[in-house]
Automatic annotation (TrEMBL):
Residues 58-94 are annotated as: Disordered. Gene3D superfamilies: 1.10.287.1490. This is Uncharacterized protein. It comes from Kribbella capetownensis. Coiled coil: none annotated. Pfam families: CT398_CC, Zn_ribbon_9. Residues 60-76 have a biased composition (Basic and acidic residues). Residues 205-239 form the C4-type zinc ribbon domain.
């Protein structure tokens, strides 16, 4: 394949633009916000799961407290009715009075037991609500942090996309100046050589593989026609002769 020396040097401009585009693509994929958001999502999922558990526990304890309150209230009402009967003088039988007083005593003990159970439930509920509040606060903080990270990420992506668009326009302009066959070969080599399909010869070294060429290869390059498209014997990339080449 042949191409004028100026065209070959222009291929190096294309290579430089492609490397810049690769760098932009890498930056887009490796923005710190991506990892931060992934970590935040993982942490938030744990908090969300724990919050569901806390909500369930609080709901269960609230029902248990209502039942405890109701149980205490029912026994208190029964005691109040018995006490009212006792105070009213309606019960005149000594045995009935004894039974009524005994029942009031039993109800007092029952109320005491129920109040203890009620207090225990209230303490459990208070602790559960504290955990629930902490988890909700953390969940809200995660939401705020997520919004900040997404805003930062979107701004960075917008800037990188603008860079990519500008580089893409420049690349299209350079590519329009090059023969299709040369671009095709360059693209194929670029795909198989880590993104570098063409490299300059600087001194005696191919800047694609950074290897110093053998004297026989340098002699071949020196005697090759100026428009010959050469390849590095070490890495196979297109080797472009420049003013810095020692040939």
């Amino acid at each position: 394949m042949n191409a004028e020396p100026a065209v070959q040097r222009r291929l190096l401009d294309l290579q430089d633009l492609d490397l810049q585009l690769d760098q932009v693509a890498h930056k887009r994929k490796s923005l710190p916000e991506h990892q931060a958001l992934a970590d935040l999502t993982a942490e938030k999922s744990v908090v969300d799961r724990d919050l569901v558990t806390a909500d369930t526990e609080v709901s269960d304890l609230q029902r248990e407290q209502k039942k405890a309150d109701s149980d205490v209230d029912q026994v208190r009402q029964r005691k109040a009715r018995n006490q009212q009967r006792l105070d009213s003088g309606q019960v005149t039988s000594a045995k009935d009075l004894e039974n009524l007083q005994h029942e009031i005593g039993s109800l007092d003990r029952r109320i005491s037991d129920l109040e203890d159970a009620e207090l225990e439930v209230m303490e459990k509920l208070e602790a559960a609500e504290a955990v629930q509040l902490d988890l909700r606060t953390r969940a809200e903080a995660f939401a705020g942090r997520q919004s900040e990270l997404e805003t930062s990420r979107d701004a960075a992506l917008k800037e990188l996309d603008e860079q990519r668009a500008g580089l893409g326009d420049k690349r299209a302009g350079v590519a329009a100046e090059l023969p299709d066959a040369l671009i095709t070969q360059y693209q194929r080599l670029r795909e198989h050589n880590g993104g570098i399909g063409a490299a300059p010869l600087v001194g005696k070294r191919c800047m694609g593989c950074r290897m110093e060429l053998a004297p026989s290869d340098l002699n071949r390059i020196k005697t090759a026609p100026a428009d010959a498209v050469l390849r590095c014997e070490e890495c196979g990339r297109i080797l472009v002769r420049t003013a810095e080449a020692s040939v």
